[in-house]
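Dear colleagues,

As part of the handover before I leave the project, I'm documenting each prediction I ran so the next person doesn't have to rerun anything. This entry is a single chain, and its sequence is reproduced below.
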Amino acid sequence: QLRGLSTTDIGELTSTQVGGLANTQLAALTATNVSALDETQVGALSATQVRALTSTQLGGLSTTDIGELSATQVGSLAATQLSALSTTNIAALSTTQLGGLTSTQLGGLTATALSTLDETQVGSLTTTQVGGLTATQLRALSTTDFAELSATQVGGLTSTQLGALSATNLSALDATTMGGLTTTQLRGLTTTQMAGLSTTDIG
Protein backbone atom coordinates (compact mmCIF):
# COMPACT_ATOMS: atom_id res chain seq x y z
CA GLN A 1 0.00 0.00 0.00
CA LEU A 2 2.80 2.42 0.86
CA ARG A 3 4.39 1.68 -2.49
CA GLY A 4 1.28 3.10 -4.13
CA LEU A 5 1.56 6.46 -2.40
CA SER A 6 2.72 9.41 -4.45
CA THR A 7 5.87 11.31 -3.54
CA THR A 8 3.59 14.09 -2.32
CA ASP A 9 1.82 11.67 0.01
CA ILE A 10 5.14 10.37 1.29
CA GLY A 11 6.24 13.91 1.99
CA GLU A 12 3.14 14.46 4.12
CA LEU A 13 3.96 11.66 6.56
CA THR A 14 4.98 12.93 9.97
CA SER A 15 8.29 12.02 11.57
CA THR A 16 6.40 9.87 14.06
CA GLN A 17 4.67 8.00 11.25
CA VAL A 18 7.93 7.43 9.39
CA GLY A 19 9.65 6.29 12.56
CA GLY A 20 6.85 3.79 13.15
CA LEU A 21 7.12 2.04 9.79
CA ALA A 22 8.13 -1.61 9.86
CA ASN A 23 11.30 -2.63 8.05
CA THR A 24 9.25 -4.62 5.56
CA GLN A 25 7.20 -1.51 4.78
CA LEU A 26 10.33 0.55 4.21
CA ALA A 27 11.81 -2.14 2.00
CA ALA A 28 8.68 -2.00 -0.16
CA LEU A 29 9.15 1.68 -0.96
CA THR A 30 10.64 2.59 -4.31
CA ALA A 31 13.83 4.62 -4.50
CA THR A 32 11.67 7.49 -5.74
CA ASN A 33 9.46 7.24 -2.66
CA VAL A 34 12.47 7.21 -0.35
CA SER A 35 13.99 10.19 -2.12
CA ALA A 36 10.75 12.08 -1.34
CA LEU A 37 11.52 11.90 2.38
CA ASP A 38 12.87 15.19 3.68
CA GLU A 39 15.75 15.57 6.10
CA THR A 40 13.47 15.60 9.16
CA GLN A 41 11.77 12.37 8.13
CA VAL A 42 15.10 10.68 7.38
CA GLY A 43 16.45 11.83 10.72
CA ALA A 44 13.48 10.16 12.44
CA LEU A 45 14.43 6.70 11.17
CA SER A 46 15.90 4.34 13.72
CA ALA A 47 19.28 2.72 13.15
CA THR A 48 17.45 -0.55 12.51
CA GLN A 49 15.26 1.08 9.87
CA VAL A 50 18.26 2.67 8.17
CA ARG A 51 19.99 -0.70 8.10
CA ALA A 52 16.90 -2.14 6.37
CA LEU A 53 17.10 0.29 3.45
CA THR A 54 18.40 -1.17 0.21
CA SER A 55 21.45 0.19 -1.56
CA THR A 56 19.18 1.55 -4.29
CA GLN A 57 17.01 3.38 -1.76
CA LEU A 58 20.02 4.91 -0.03
CA GLY A 59 21.44 5.99 -3.36
CA GLY A 60 18.35 8.13 -3.87
CA LEU A 61 18.88 10.22 -0.74
CA SER A 62 20.10 13.78 -1.18
CA THR A 63 23.17 15.18 0.53
CA THR A 64 20.80 17.13 2.80
CA ASP A 65 19.06 13.90 3.81
CA ILE A 66 22.39 12.19 4.42
CA GLY A 67 23.48 15.13 6.52
CA GLU A 68 20.57 14.56 8.89
CA LEU A 69 21.63 11.01 9.74
CA SER A 70 23.12 10.69 13.21
CA ALA A 71 26.46 9.04 13.88
CA THR A 72 24.51 6.04 15.20
CA GLN A 73 22.45 5.80 12.01
CA VAL A 74 25.53 6.08 9.80
CA GLY A 75 27.34 3.56 11.98
CA SER A 76 24.55 1.05 11.42
CA LEU A 77 25.07 0.98 7.65
CA ALA A 78 26.45 -2.18 6.11
CA ALA A 79 29.47 -2.03 3.80
CA THR A 80 27.24 -2.62 0.78
CA GLN A 81 25.03 0.30 1.82
CA LEU A 82 28.00 2.63 2.26
CA SER A 83 29.37 1.68 -1.13
CA ALA A 84 26.00 2.64 -2.64
CA LEU A 85 26.34 6.23 -1.46
CA SER A 86 27.52 8.64 -4.12
CA THR A 87 30.90 10.30 -3.76
CA THR A 88 28.98 13.54 -3.21
CA ASN A 89 27.15 12.00 -0.26
CA ILE A 90 30.39 10.61 1.18
CA ALA A 91 32.00 14.02 0.88
CA ALA A 92 29.01 15.54 2.71
CA LEU A 93 29.45 13.38 5.82
CA SER A 94 30.30 15.44 8.89
CA THR A 95 33.22 14.63 11.16
CA THR A 96 30.69 13.45 13.75
CA GLN A 97 29.10 11.06 11.25
CA LEU A 98 32.50 9.77 10.17
CA GLY A 99 33.29 9.17 13.82
CA GLY A 100 30.39 6.69 13.93
CA LEU A 101 31.99 4.45 11.31
CA THR A 102 34.13 1.50 12.28
CA SER A 103 37.51 0.87 10.67
CA THR A 104 35.89 -2.03 8.81
CA GLN A 105 33.22 0.22 7.35
CA LEU A 106 35.78 2.80 6.25
CA GLY A 107 37.96 0.09 4.82
CA GLY A 108 35.04 -0.97 2.62
CA LEU A 109 34.82 2.37 0.85
CA THR A 110 36.35 2.64 -2.58
CA ALA A 111 39.54 4.64 -2.94
CA THR A 112 37.60 7.11 -5.08
CA ALA A 113 34.99 7.62 -2.37
CA LEU A 114 37.63 8.09 0.32
CA SER A 115 39.52 10.58 -1.81
CA THR A 116 36.50 12.91 -1.72
CA LEU A 117 37.03 13.54 2.01
CA ASP A 118 38.62 16.90 2.72
CA GLU A 119 41.47 17.61 5.09
CA THR A 120 39.18 18.32 8.05
CA GLN A 121 37.38 15.01 7.62
CA VAL A 122 40.63 13.07 7.24
CA GLY A 123 42.13 14.82 10.24
CA SER A 124 39.13 13.80 12.35
CA LEU A 125 39.62 10.07 11.81
CA THR A 126 40.79 8.11 14.83
CA THR A 127 44.02 6.16 14.89
CA THR A 128 42.00 2.95 14.73
CA GLN A 129 40.06 4.17 11.69
CA VAL A 130 43.23 5.21 9.86
CA GLY A 131 44.81 1.88 10.77
CA GLY A 132 41.95 0.11 9.01
CA LEU A 133 42.44 1.89 5.68
CA THR A 134 43.87 -0.11 2.84
CA ALA A 135 47.08 0.86 1.08
CA THR A 136 45.05 1.77 -2.00
CA GLN A 137 42.83 4.09 0.03
CA LEU A 138 45.79 5.83 1.64
CA ARG A 139 47.49 6.40 -1.71
CA ALA A 140 44.26 7.93 -3.01
CA LEU A 141 44.35 10.73 -0.44
CA SER A 142 45.55 14.07 -1.75
CA THR A 143 48.76 15.55 -0.38
CA THR A 144 46.62 18.16 1.38
CA ASP A 145 44.58 15.44 3.07
CA PHE A 146 47.69 13.48 3.92
CA ALA A 147 49.30 16.53 5.48
CA GLU A 148 46.40 16.70 7.95
CA LEU A 149 47.29 13.37 9.52
CA SER A 150 48.61 13.80 13.05
CA ALA A 151 51.71 12.23 14.56
CA THR A 152 49.42 9.86 16.48
CA GLN A 153 47.54 8.80 13.34
CA VAL A 154 50.78 8.20 11.42
CA GLY A 155 52.28 6.34 14.36
CA GLY A 156 49.42 3.87 14.13
CA LEU A 157 50.08 2.90 10.51
CA THR A 158 51.19 -0.66 9.90
CA SER A 159 54.36 -1.56 8.03
CA THR A 160 52.20 -2.69 5.11
CA GLN A 161 50.41 0.65 4.97
CA LEU A 162 53.65 2.62 5.20
CA GLY A 163 55.39 0.46 2.64
CA ALA A 164 52.68 1.17 0.09
CA LEU A 165 52.93 4.95 0.38
CA SER A 166 54.64 6.94 -2.31
CA ALA A 167 57.49 9.32 -1.63
CA THR A 168 55.03 12.13 -2.44
CA ASN A 169 52.65 10.91 0.28
CA LEU A 170 55.40 10.89 2.88
CA SER A 171 56.88 14.22 1.82
CA ALA A 172 53.48 15.83 2.55
CA LEU A 173 53.99 15.12 6.25
CA ASP A 174 55.68 17.83 8.29
CA ALA A 175 58.49 17.28 10.76
CA THR A 176 56.13 17.08 13.74
CA THR A 177 54.02 14.38 12.11
CA MET A 178 57.08 12.46 10.97
CA GLY A 179 58.15 12.50 14.59
CA GLY A 180 55.25 10.17 15.31
CA LEU A 181 56.92 7.33 13.40
CA THR A 182 58.53 4.70 15.55
CA THR A 183 62.06 3.41 14.98
CA THR A 184 60.59 0.21 13.57
CA GLN A 185 58.42 2.15 11.13
CA LEU A 186 61.37 4.26 9.95
CA ARG A 187 63.52 1.20 9.40
CA GLY A 188 60.80 -0.22 7.17
CA LEU A 189 60.84 2.72 4.76
CA THR A 190 62.34 2.06 1.34
CA THR A 191 65.29 3.98 -0.06
CA THR A 192 62.93 5.68 -2.52
CA GLN A 193 60.67 6.83 0.30
CA MET A 194 63.62 8.09 2.33
CA ALA A 195 65.02 9.95 -0.67
CA GLY A 196 61.78 11.89 -0.96
CA LEU A 197 62.00 13.28 2.57
CA SER A 198 63.33 16.76 3.17
CA THR A 199 66.21 17.52 5.50
CA THR A 200 63.65 19.04 7.87
CA ASP A 201 61.64 15.80 7.93
CA ILE A 202 64.75 13.76 8.59
CA GLY A 203 66.01 16.21 11.19
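The two ends are 69 Å apart (CA to CA). The mean pLDDT is 88.

All the best with the project,
I.
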